[in-house]
Amino acid sequence: MSYTILFPNYTIGENPFTEVPNICQRYGTKITVIGGKTALSKVAADLEKAVEGSELEILDMLWYGGEATLEHVATLKNNPAVQNADMLFAVGGGRAIDTCKMLAHDLNMPFMTVPTIASTCAACTGVAVYYYPNGEFRDLYLSDVPANHIFIPTQVIAAAPDEYLWAGIGDTLAKHYESVFSSRNDELEHFNALGVNISTMSAEPLVKYGKQAMEDSKKDQTSAAMEQIILAIIVSTGLVSNLVINDYNSALAHSIYYGSTAVDAVAEKHLHGEIVAYGVLVLLMLDQQQTELERIFRFNKSIGLPTKLADLDITTDEDLEKVLDKAVATKDIEHVPYVITREMIKKAILDLEAYNLNS
């Protein structure tokens, strides 16, 4: 077999845009920037200043549409600023970046990403998630082509609402534990082995620096700890996602997330990464990884991530049964080292409840 692996480069700092002329002039001269309204307002002045005195020109700054949909991609394709651009800049959170990513892929254009929150690895990966206009999940847009470059403005991310970084930490934890678990019995090709092995960088920095980074985030200030966490969420996890096959990108922790969305109170009140962080504990309990369970349990407690059902507003037996029904039906637990049954998941959840009482 043959395969090609593509990696994005990145620049990180309080104002990474000073490097825009050096990095982007190889792709042309005309830039169109696409993103969320708030995100664009945070970086517009720095981007405009960055191109002053260079051959680069910003044609326009466009709102992405408010949702990652094929319809918004089609609208943007017809915009003259997009049609006349040599490259695109995707600015904002995951949905804004994924919209621009799909647009760039469809037009075969170079694109740069500017994540203004650290909640997912969207800025680093080639894959996009897209939705129906009403916000309902529609499908994955599968591509192996990531951004040409990532500009990571740490001060903008530090000043963003704390919950984004908090949930990003929760989601990032799962990348290590799920990829190692789901690939356990397989003979791995080099790219899969590389991805699984570097996934430790999606966990270790979080445990070491996560509490300090959250304290810094509450003060809206950058720090060495904050930078480590941002890189773990955006870059380390993104590289794992770019390297490994989809079977290794999720497992039981994400099954627990999808299962939890069957309970209205969970879907309304809790963030994806928050729920996934709880799912990691269920995975560690089910797989009898006692040492890691104790470690991640303490870490979750230290920054307020959930450790028990009540933390997610799952309070009745009926709620739990809904979670189990949906969780066991997901594809995320199809490629795992042993058969995972509904009864096994329930036992792990109840064992975790008991662990909470004794801790």
UniProtKB/TrEMBL annotation:
Catalytic activity: glycerol + NAD(+) = dihydroxyacetone + NADH + H(+)
Keyword set, alphabetical order: Metal-binding, NAD, Oxidoreductase, Zinc
One MF annotation (Gene Ontology) recorded for this entry: glycerol dehydrogenase (NAD+) activity
Binding site for NAD(+): G94, R95, A96, I97, D98, T116, I117, A118, S119, T125, Y131
Enzyme class: oxidoreductase
Cofactor: Zn(2+)
Binding, glycerol: D171, H254, H272
Zinc recorded as keyword: yes
SUPFAM superfamilies found in the cross-reference section: Dehydroquinate synthase-like (SSF56796)
Cofactor binding, per record: Binds 1 zinc ion per subunit.
Alcohol dehydrogenase iron-type/glycerol dehydrogenase GldA domain mapped to chain residues: 9-135
GO cellular component: cytosol
Annotated metabolic or biological route of this protein: Polyol metabolism; glycerol fermentation; glycerone phosphate from glycerol (oxidative route): step 1/2
Protein name: Glycerol dehydrogenase
Native organism: Candidatus Avacidaminococcus intestinavium
